[in-house]
User: What shape does this take?
Amino acid sequence: MGWTYFFASTMLVCVEYSAVATVMQYWDRDTNPAAWIAMAMVVCFLLNVVAVRWFGESEFIMASTKVLLLLGLVLITLITMSGGNPQGDAYGFRNWGAGAMHSYYAEGGDQYLPYVAPLTPYAPVVSLLCGCTALVFVGFDVFSPFSIRGFVTSYFALLWAAVMFGVGRFLVWKRGGKMGFIAAKDADLLSGKDEIDEECRHWEEGGIEEVEKARLAEMSTS
Assistant: This one.
């Protein structure tokens, strides 16, 4: 087991070095990737031979940079999807139409019916109960002696799932929906299908890159 862990850690370092070279090639394709890998190895080596204080400081700075980068990417994505781009195209809301949500219950009539798998819905329910039971007992040692940190770590996911399940059921009840299962013949599988087919056709016909280039060219001339 020890050698397996050592091999996994060694390969992880190699993957990280390769990732550095891959990222740097977005800006500089002329430099040999081996140069970026060598530079990353030197930086990593120096951080491990200096005093632990500087290693900790570098870890803090790099981790903070990663968090700021993630927040920036989320904000940039939200802004550009909402229309904050040079073309003014709110591409994140193209298919909203009359609203983001479609009717869940069908009115009946001629429509396709879903495939009902064997043991449905009992097999998923049994699997869910087994998983919840395992979650309850896997962290049972946090109660003796009681550890608030261990309790949060072991049971937060279970409590959060229960809360969200209750919130979802309440919202369904608030909108006048049924609280139980619905029959297969009442399932609505067609609402929004035309919009989805059109979106798929946009990317599948002519190739993804060609279609996107044509769309951008059309936007720039309009």
Summary: Residues 103-113 have pLDDT under 50 and may be disordered. Residues 198 and 204 are 10 Å apart (CA to CA). Residues 119-180 form one domain.
